[in-house]
Model the fold of this input.
Amino acid sequence: MNIAVVAPVFPALSETFVLSQITGLIDLGHDVRVISLSRPPAGDPVHPTVKDYGLLAKTTYLDLPRGRVAGMADWLLSMARLVARYGKRGWRAVAITRAAHGLPRPRDAAFADRMAPALQGCDVVYCHFGDVARRALPGALIVGAPLAVMFHGADLRRAQRQGPDAFGALPRLGGLFLAISDYSVRLLRELGFPPEKIRLHHVGIDTARFAAQPRVPGEDGTLRLLTVGRLAAVKGYEYGLRAVARLVDQPDAPTVQYTIIGDGPLADDLQALVRELGVEKEVVFRGGCAADRVLAELAAADLFMLPSVAEVTPVVLMEAQAAGLPVVATDVGAVREVVRDGRSGLIVPAGDAEALYGALAALLSKQDAWPQMGAAGREWVAQQYDAPTLNRRLSELLEELARPV
Done:
């Protein structure tokens, strides 16, 4: 089967789930091409798997022009090309995908003009994120390929704020909608997606890549705490840092080494907060890291913390548990589906530094339970979120969509 995978940015260091599905589908014998709406920043680290599978040679970048004047000129050219190539079908494919507007928007036409040639010959179009699928839908209609989309987190949160027309005609014209958690299933139904087109399908990880090992206190008495995630407001780093500062301030506190992996818009603000809290010696920012480095940091840590204030299904919690780490996480999105509270980790209210501190202190007080908690987390992730198993199911779903009975 020829599958076109459409992503907002490829390759994106933080979106390992996209890469895992692409390589999984290739391993299952499918011919996969990648269409990226934009290019990654120059100099970003790239997962070795991208090179191993030759994925950059399989990737088409749409490269829309920047700026209002250039955008308007490109819109006129795009509409002219659409009509010249596809006749009325080109115009209608763009216009019909707007739920509340009869006229195409300039960027809709520009995406369709570039998307349709890139989709020629594919059996199914598979998009990551709902807003990406809305942009890909006109091209899919032009070439006559069914469209599937996997919704993640930011797309659904934006849609909740924007209202029922956020995805245009995607609920009506799309063929398959994958929700990565029960929480996401509920959101899709609330947003008006037909229940008969919705399937629960977790994102997952290759658990075989994570060598779980029992966590025991280090002989030097140092607590090695780890967080992995973009340095963005939704990740709640402010509360995690304040919890660590509170822990360090205790009279009987252990030596703490808090490592943060990730990059993002709050990098400078968070480093300023570290200085304000007086924990420069305890906190280390590693920046964005490739997969091998993340694996090494997971293997070296004692505990994992994710202090997010908004999530849907954080893959990093799967990775931490697959590595055998007890975790501290906040009660947002589908976290309670990924982490079993009290068994593989502790879940506390979001936006509460004191609660995060309390969870860290509680785990420190029962260090003999770390190996058991780590084993429970590893077992749960292997049962529910193993990528090879999930990729086989994804292949079946896409084949059903491409060849309806």
About this structure: DSSP finds 17 helices and 13 strands in the chain. The longest strand covers residues 2-9. Confidence is low (pLDDT under 50) at residues 99-103. The two ends are 16 Å apart (CA to CA).
